[in-house]
Here is the input.
Amino acid sequence: MSIRQIMVALPLTLAFPGMPATAQTSAPRAAVPLPVPAKMQLLGLSADEAMSLMAILQAAQQQLRAGKFQHFALFSGATASYTETRMSPRDAFLRLPFDRVWRIERLRHENRALQTHRLAYAPNGLGQLYWDIEVMSGLEGRLERVVMTYKAPAPF
Here is the structure.
């Protein structure tokens, strides 16, 4: 029994002493996926800035597919049991449809020469596993680093 189940079962056991604790809890059910918003959610940037960022990322994908050398750092990860851990960072980056990202947020950075954005792509809908993507770009929008993490949505 997990700690979460114990935390749920203990108050129920105290409230209903005749009922076994195992009957009072159930395994967590998978959340029903919600559709991704039709309109992209932008936080701290304009629609033009978001489209420019998307164009930079898509151009980097095209350059990599064409075999051209790219100078930015690329990292990808996921929980050890997720199948996405079997994929190289390059393959993960090339598979991401940046035109289907549903949320972009500009993050503050100590170095004013760098821009950092956080993107979210939910391939199976909201409330499901999703790609959390942090993009750091430097002068003139040149990509410096892309970090992609496949993870569960909050509160996990």
In short: The mean pLDDT is 82.
